[in-house]
Automatic annotation (TrEMBL):
GO terms for cellular component: plasma membrane. Residues 1-22 are annotated as: Disordered. PANTHER family: INNER MEMBRANE PROTEIN, INNER MEMBRANE PROTEIN-RELATED. Keywords: Membrane, Transmembrane, Transmembrane helix. This is DUF445 domain-containing protein. Pfam families: DUF445. It comes from the Bacteria. The chain crosses the membrane at residues 48-69. Residues 1-13 have a biased composition (Basic and acidic residues). InterPro entries: DUF445.
Length: 448
């Protein structure tokens, strides 16, 4: 059954985290790969080699001592001294290497089993070491300045193949982002933002200034010409409709021929009025319209009542369902347009992005001033990240090490470095033997 509670701490071991809370954090340290198994077999072979060398010097010591007692000669003392010192060196280094990973002979000797018992402290020390030596502002700036990112980035982007690749990746990311977003959410946000912004601003003065400028420049005259021209065409095509409307509004007691006479007269006057407005730029009606628009533009900017009425009209228009639906549907149209442009390799959007990347790469590759700007920007961003989040980065190391299971961490580390550590035992045996031989020789020489 999977463990759900923290195990009790055993001598030489740190408490094991719960399976639910720590499985993800130490899974990589508990799983032995095929490469780890091969490394562990290499460690075992080196252990046998070191132990065999210890056994060899022990046998040599025993034989040399026996031969010395048997009167074989003074040379046996030199051999025995070298073998004895070799055994001492081998045993001392065996103790030192073993103490890193476990208690030698299972005895709870102080300051042994360092890795399993001091794992968390080692993690803290490692985090502090990384923070002080790798995440300092000076180190980051010096390293990035030596790299010359701006120049390298420029050379890379100036290659058409690389610009194509970046363009394709940006298009893929854009399509992915637009696909993930729900239309209803975006429409609601866009609609609410537009409505809130429009509702918060008074449009009267701005509309008044715009209308005043249009009237001053004569821009409204083209609109008047269009309206008058369409009105003239409509009157010419719909004479009967006008006559029916006029006769229908006449009193019932008037004779019909009088109604037709009046209707014909009114129609002709309307047609004459519209024709004169169309053909005469200086028509009095046009001048009256100019004065009206000028006065209305002034009221929009200075008259409180007019501005209030326009603002109420604005809110009423924005509150209508048709306007909200129009705002919401704008996102759908924009999204479809952007997705289609991102998918089409020959679209104007992708071609412009590609051309912009190539231009940026060429400038970065050839302009030292721009290279310096990019380098300083990257250095500043990197320094901001490491100085702002240094504690979070180092705590990631500390907490990750703390989440590892002590026993499996020890096995994992031993599999990686244990083979090299066995050479310490071998070297200790050899160096100890040579040191013992030298010491014995010097002692004999001084004694003689």
């Amino acid at each position: 059954m999977e463990r759900a509670q923290t195990e009790e701490a055993e001598p030489g071991r740190t408490p094991r985290p719960t399976a639910a809370g720590r499985a993800g954090s130490y899974r990589t340290m508990t799983a032995f790969t095929a490469a780890d198994e091969e490394r562990q077999r290499g460690v075992r072979r080196m252990k046998l080699t070191a132990a065999g060398l210890l056994l060899f010097v022990a046998v040599v010591y025993a034989l040399a001592t026996w031969a010395g007692h048997a009167g074989a000669g003074h040379w046996t003392g030199y051999v025995a001294a070298a073998a004895e010192a070799g055994m001492v060196g081998a045993l001392a280094d065996w103790f030192a290497v073993t103490a890193l990973f476990r208690h030698p002979l299972g005895l709870p000797i102080p300051h042994t089993a360092i890795i399993p018992t001091k794992k968390d402290q080692l993690g803290v020390s490692l985090g502090e070491f990384v923070g002080e030596n790798f995440l300092s502002e000076d180190v980051v700036r010096q390293r990035l300045a030596a790299v010359g990112i701006g120049s390298r980035l420029g050379d890379w982007l100036a290659e058409p193949a690389n610009a194509d690749r970046v363009t394709a990746e940006l298009a893929t990311a854009l399509r992915g982002a637009l696909t993930v977003l729900r239309d209803s959410d975006v429409q609601a946000v866009v609609g609410e933002a537009i409505t809130r912004r429009a509702d918060a601003r008074e449009i009267g003065p701005a509309v008044g200034k715009l209308l005043d400028r249009i009237v001053a420049d004569g821009g409204h005259r083209r609109v008047v010409d269009l309206v008058v021209g369409r009105a003239h065409e409509w009157l010419e095509r719909h004479r009967d409709d006008v006559m029916v409307a006029i006769e229908g509004g006449a009193p019932g007691w008037t004779p019909r021929f009088v109604d037709r006479k009046v209707g014909d007269r009114v129609y002709k006057e309307l047609l004459r009025f519209v024709t004169e407005m169309q053909e005469m730029p200086s028509h009095p009606a046009r001048a009256a319209l100019d004065r009206f628009l000028t006065d209305f533009a002034s009221d929009l900017q200075s008259d409180t009542e007019t501005r209030a009425r326009v603002d109420r009209l604005k809110r009423e228009v924005l509150a209508r369902d048709e306007v909200q639906d129009l705002i919401a549907s704008a996102w759908t149209a924009v999204r479809s347009m952007i997705v289609a442009a991102a998918e089409d390799e020959q679209s104007e959007l992708r071609l412009r992005v590609r051309a912009g990347l190539l231009s940026l790469g060429q400038r970065l590759a050839t302009e030292p001033k721009m290279q310096g700007k990019v380098d300083r920007w990257i250095e500043g961003a990197a320094v901001h990240v490491v100085t702002t989040y240094r504690k979070e980065i180092t705590s990631l190391i500390t907490e990750t090490v703390a989440g590892w299971d002590a026993e499996h961490t020890t096995r994992k580390i031993e599999a990686h470095i244990g083979r090299d550590l066995q050479f310490i035992r071998i070297n200790g045996t050899v160096v100890g033997s040579l040191a013992g031989l030298v010491i014995y020789t010097v002692s004999r020489a001084l004694g003689g």
